[in-house]
Structures are given as C-alpha cells and as structure tokens.
Model the fold of this input.
Amino acid sequence: MAPSSTLAHRHQVSERQAARRRGARLREARQASGYPIDAVALAVGRSFDSMRSYECGRVTPPLDVFYALCQLYGLDVAELLEEVS
Done:
C-alpha cells in the first residue's frame, strides 16, 4: 500500500472503531436507564431497526436524536461521548 492509502485506511479504521464505541456507549446508557430499546425508539421517534443501528455503531444518530437520547437517559452530551474520541 502507498503511504497515503495506508493513512487513509488507518483513518477509516479509526472512524469505524469510534462509531462502534459510540454505539456501545448509547447501548450502555440505555441499559443503565432501564429502558427497553423499543420504548426508546418510540420516545425519540425512530424505528427499532434505527436504534439497533445506532447502538451497533453502523449509523450515527442525527444530532436531534442524539440530544433526545441524552435527555431521555439524563446525561450530558459530554458524558455520553466520554472515552469515545
């Protein structure tokens, strides 16, 4: 691999890892709050499948959904994102 493509690949891997960690934090926050995933999906106006995608790190939730999740879980945005960067 050329040096520039190696750097691009590392960045891509890093982004995927960050997305997975973000999803794991969303799942942990939901579980700590005691809410089932279907109730959270209903509360923030998303489908069950969308919530699963967020929690698996396949999809990053839109900002409005992310803020709604923080409010629902009683967390500051910084708390939900700590240790992700």
User: Anything to note?
Assistant: The chain has five helices and no strands.
